[in-house]
Amino acid sequence: MTDPAPPPEPWYGEPEEPPFPDPEEWGAPYGAPARPAAAAAPLPPPDPEQLRAEAEAALRRLVGRDEAELREDQWRAIDALVTHRRRALVVQRTGWGKSAVYFVATSLLRARGAGPTVIVSPLLALMRDQIAAAERAGIRAVTVNSANTNEWSAIYQRIAAGEVDVLLCSPERLNNPDFRDEVLPRLAASAGLVVVDEAHCISDWGHDFRPDYRRIRTLLADLPEGIPVLATTATANERVTTDVAEQLGSGADVLVLRGGLDRPSLHLAVVQLPDVSTRLAWLVENLRGYTGSGIVYCLTVAAAEQTATQLRAAGYPVASYTGQTDPSEREQLEADLKENRVKALVATSALGMGFDKPDLGFVIHLGAPPSPIAYYQQVGRAGRAVTRADVVLLPAAEDKAIWDYFGSMGFPQQSDVRATLAELPMLGEGAISVAALEPLVDLRRNRLEMMLKVLDVDGAVRRVRGGWASTGEEWSYDADRYRRVDEARLAEQEAMLTYQRTDGCRMTYLRRCLDDPELQPDERCGRCDSCGGVKPPGLPADASVSAAREGLDVIGVEIMPRRQWPSGMKQLGIEVSGRIGPDEQPEPGRALARLDGLGWSLPLRELLAGPDGELPVSLRDPLTRLLREWQPEVDAIVAIDSATRPQLARHLTAGVAALLGVPVVGAIRPAPGSEPGRHDVNSAQRLAGVVRRLPSVEGIDVDGRRVLLVDDSVDSGWTLTHTARMLRNSGAAAVLPLVLAQR
After folding, report:
1. Per residue, what are the HEC states of 104-166?
2. What pLDDT does 219 receive?
3. Hey, what CATH class is 554-742 in?
4. The model's pTM
5. Which CATH number, 3.10.450.50, 3.40.50.300, 3.90.226.10, 3.30.420.380, labels domain 266-404+486-550?
């Protein structure tokens, strides 16, 4: 049987990329300044008044307003970067103008003969917005990313010719072997300014830690003296700010500029509703009343897609936006929202940092993020250039279960780390790819890749052409730090629950969680439902709730068969490889619902999380309807028996047999003493565990029969794939899987 695991939202960042072209094609030196003669000798310090006048002029070009003036802390940061070539950390609220600091500083530095600015930026959406902003200020900006590989050579030739003022790259690129070893050293040596955007990602205390960001610490340590560095973020409490500043410092004095985090345009409210149908009905009734266009956030991909479907059925122009949305479609959806061609994007956290729509009118959450800091970051998308933006949270009872699942995907146990290190060749003696490493360890690919990136930052491994290698450096497992990070995560979850319950000022609560230095004791915003500035709509009409419930009463998810065996199975003693032959595959099957969605997902989650027992009465009618609609052409039923839910498995199989009038010809039983399979291992290990646990179908007569294969749930799909192969090899004419839940 398979184990519970709602599919996680993919990690931010770019996928693995092809190698860079031969560096000789790019010309040299990379990043040669536009005015090399002026850069050859240090210039005297600029006159402060003249420099500020130039900075104000650059700002006005950037924002397109003649009356624009620099904020005092903007000027302090620019002066520190341009005049004193210092390192600075700017922690200011969303919409404050952090990007103006680095674009204005770039303009001033380039005018004085400095090399181009290198900006490490986390998302393609953010890069697109930053390039557009730079062009308004007359700054020539380019990016190298996975979407423009055919342009890389031309871009580096332009950089070498001094025709580029700003290069944007992702943190993932910093450890692309060719970029790291061939491009970055020369580019960094001639850079005029290095910028780290969304710098809270550097800290594993932050709400959105990314291992690739930690590598920036090494980059900064290797910079030549005199190259200024700027880090910016809107979401860092005191602990994260201190951690980031220490990593930026590398012995240098870091100027930290923290400002107030109040957002006068935001009007905050929490609406407690009893169930998912009521929350959807509330959204359908009230979305039209919110000004402009906005974002509706959901915690899972399935929830976002189902919510978008409900809203479209109610006549709203909306679309879903998740980590599974094609990159080219994402760009179009972002443009649709910016141009108000949609009322809302129904999104997961994939639409977060970097999306910039100054007149975004509302942000509504169906389900709460796992921390007040993450919540502040997401609602900060709204109200940048409007006097009022509405922010509403509709929490759900199941939120914490989703938080706990994502929290379980943290840094692996010491035994997993040691086992991985033991499989890596030594540096200089070869490399092993992630695909080849997977069958040798017990980790899913996303956790394995995350762990390798952390070990790379710690110096224990190194990414090279062809994969990964061990450096042989001594490495210790920092169990105390990982424990403290986990404790901090749990404390943030509790703080998010407290935000939902508080009768105090909601904006004050968020600002306190972020250690806002300008927050006054007993300060109240006057703009939230606690302060009296907002009175959100109450319960929706019964008819709306009934309509929402009917809309959620959608049964049936198609289960598509696996087409390819995992790599490296022979190393695990299992003789399968390559494509799965059509004579060994199951046909497309059906699940009653996805486990991470809405509607029937909720009672299924309760069933599979609870004790063993018969199929509840509430789930028998939808299962009956599914079979009537599907009408599988079968003449035999085979069950996959369960070590953890035997009563459910037997009751489910008997009920399906009675409904279809088809005999049960046997059950595939786990080998004596075998343990249920783990959900947190990769495909190769998962399949190997299934083969060992379900060794044969001996004694089950399926020759020439079309078999309905019944299980309670499907996760990776390897249990169904393996058992279908055995049944087909025993003579079954076809195998059609039926499960209650797709995990």
Report:
1. HHHHHHHHCCCCCEEEECCCHHHHHHHHHHHHHCCCCEEECCCCCHHHHHHHHHHHHCCCCCE
2. 78
3. alpha beta
4. 0.82
5. 3.40.50.300
